[in-house]
Amino acid sequence: MQPSEPADQVGAPRRVPTAKDFPKTGPFSLAAPGPRFGARALDLALVAFPVLIVIAITAKSIDGQLQFDVPVWLLPAALAFAVVYEFLFVLLIQRTLGKLLFGLRVVRYVDGGRPSGTQCALRALLPWSVLALPIGPFAVGAVFLVYGTGIGGELHRGWPDRVGGTLVISTR
Fold it and tell me: From 6, 84, 100, 133, which residue has the greatest number of CB atoms within 10 Å?
């Protein structure tokens, strides 16, 4: 009987990847900060667009001054939309529309496979969960800070990637 793995690897624990395990450029290379930033900016714009439409529709001019009557449901709806958008796209096609346009894909950190539903949910929820903190006007900046954590480190894994057990790679 022949083992399916070499004898020195049978029963050995799986080693997590390091930057040396990825090509420097091209498909399956680590996603660079520039394309990640561009993809995130596009995704945030897609989430913000419906919010801006609602704000524009509800704006009124009173005595020559523009007044915004923002509906109370708008922020919770926008947050739900942002989380569902990220969750569903990463779960179904391993990328958001921004990542698709910039040639990026989300994979499991340990083996490069398709992320599970739990991983996608954790990855989508973490950035927006900071809005639950009592930090007032700094909350939006905190969301950007959480997304910005993907710039550093040898694998460019931000907090959402670490919590979700994922990694973002290039597809081109």
Answer: 100
Cβ density class 130-163: b for 16+ within 10 Å, e for less: beeeeeeeeeeeebeebbbbbeeeebbbbbbbbb
Residue 124 neighbours by CB under 8 Å, 6+ apart: 82, 83, 84, 86, 87, 90, 160
**Domain spans, the chain:** 30-170
> Contact, 170 vs 28, CB < 8 A?
yes
pLDDT in tens, 117-167: 999 999 999 888 877 777 777 777 777 788 777 777 788 888 899 999 999
